[in-house]
Amino acid sequence: MKKIVYLNFAFLCFTAIAMAQTTAKTLQGTWKIDAIQTAEVYYELATGKLTIDPAATADQPMAPEDLAMAEDMMKTQLEPFASNFIQFNDSKIIIKFGTEQREGTYTIKEKDGKQYIEATYGTGGVKEIEFTLKDKFLSIIQTAEGKEGKMIYKLS
Asked: Which residue from 32, 45, 70, 134 has the least number of CB within 10 angstroms?
């Protein structure tokens, strides 16, 4: 019985290591911002299309002209972020967010069943960035005040 438990544990460890290695290889290249998503809103930067979860407006449905106005506001507010990118080159990382650009090195970590990019910048700062990689989209997950948001990148 102990052998089965140890074999299962070894298999899980090997799988976790293989996943991290595969992900590190898969991340290579330049990822450009494609969309921003919150619990209630999905906004595609390239098309300017705004999708609002119907549950968010169930008590007060949005008129088409209100949706058009919201799309214009989102476009104006998010325009500075349209050139965001994350570039992975071997163990190096470059992140451009708005007008700020950071360079450093990175590793992939797994904690509590989630994957993180641990970026170490030239200034000595270290940042853990939660991410998922699904259907060729890299989602950077940020949580603030208990609400989750995603910046979704596409390999260019």
From this structure: 134
